[in-house]
Specification:
This protein is mainly α. Helix content is 89%, strand content 0%. The protein has a single domain, classed as Orthogonal Bundle (Helix Hairpins), CATH 1.10.287. The protein has helices spanning 9-66, 72-154. Helix 1 (9-66) runs antiparallel to helix 2 (72-154). The radius of gyration is 36 Å and the shape is rod-shaped. The two termini are 29 Å apart.
Length: 159
Amino acid sequence: MSRARYALEPLLTLRRDRVDAATAALAATLRASEHAVREVIVADAGLAAHAHAAEATRASEHAALAAGGQTAGDLQRAAAWEIGVAAESGRLAEVRSIARERQADAAAAEGAARGALSAKMAEEDAVAKHRAAFVAADGKRIAAQEEEAAEEAWRPRPA
């Protein structure tokens, strides 16, 4: 007794290939998401380091001012320095903002990729279950045919 050929085998192969592709796409979005998280961490650290360095310089300058060791030119340079620090702080804050936007976009893409993978896996699972039911039914059919053939072989023949 021969087994029946499952007609939807190419569909099952296609579904498995799509699951593989969706898995690869999810892996890529996960890498992008991790990269975006690292960018946010680096941007936050850069902004914090800049603020810390600026505060240390301010404290030093205020101590020099309190000691009377600064001239009017020093105070003008300090005011210009504060403008530069504010501009650099603004630039670093913008970098952090862009990094956070990228992180949010990457998280959204990751969610979409997870959803796509889930859908592809469900489609593949449906075909795989259908194939399993087909194979089980075919097995029962073959067993019934073999049983019938065995009964026929043992049946007495008319003389």
